[in-house]
Amino acid sequence: MEHAAKRRRLTRRTVDVALLLAMVTLMSHQVAGGALHEWLGLGTLALIVAHLVLLALGVAVAGFGLATFLCNDIVGYMAMSTPFASYDLSNPPALVLVENASVIALFAFASYHVTRIRYQVSNQRRRARTTRP
Predict the structure, then answer these.
(1) What angle do CA 39, 43, 49 make, to 5 degrees?
(2) What are all long-range contacts of 46-51, with beta carbons under 8 Å and residues at least 24 apart?
(3) Cβ contacts of residue 66 below 8 Å, gap of 6+?
(4) pLDDT digit of tens for each residue in the chain (133 aa)?
(5) How far apart are CA 56 and CA 59, in angstroms?
(6) Which of 18, 35, 41, 108 has its CA 20 to 30 A from that of 52?
């Protein structure tokens, strides 16, 4: 098995085991105590987000994130041509959170695939150099 595939599988397994341990500790609030329970809750939220990004959900969320990114003129905001990103303030708070999360997922999805393509290109170049006479 290729090294990158083993590393991805190990990353997925590590996130899954960490989620399992965090959830067991979170469910036993009386054992963990209040402060640990709150910090584990935040950590679990981060692990769940990482878990979802590692799964196939990425494509759909990234598409929605791209639409949000373009429709709300976040590009203009990032290029400093507009003072604020133009989010619709009449949207319900849940939709605003979903839009923000989808934009973050878009960047995670894009950076993952750019890194993956760079890795494949560098492997092809390395193989080409080693196979030359």
Answers:
(1) 150
(2) 47/15, 47/18, 47/19, 47/22, 48/19, 49/101, 50/15, 51/15, 51/16, 51/19
(3) 106
(4) 578 778 877 887 887 788 778 777 777 666 667 788 788 888 888 877 777 776 665 667 777 888 887 887 777 777 777 776 666 778 888 887 888 788 887 887 788 888 888 888 888 888 888 776 6
(5) 7
(6) 35
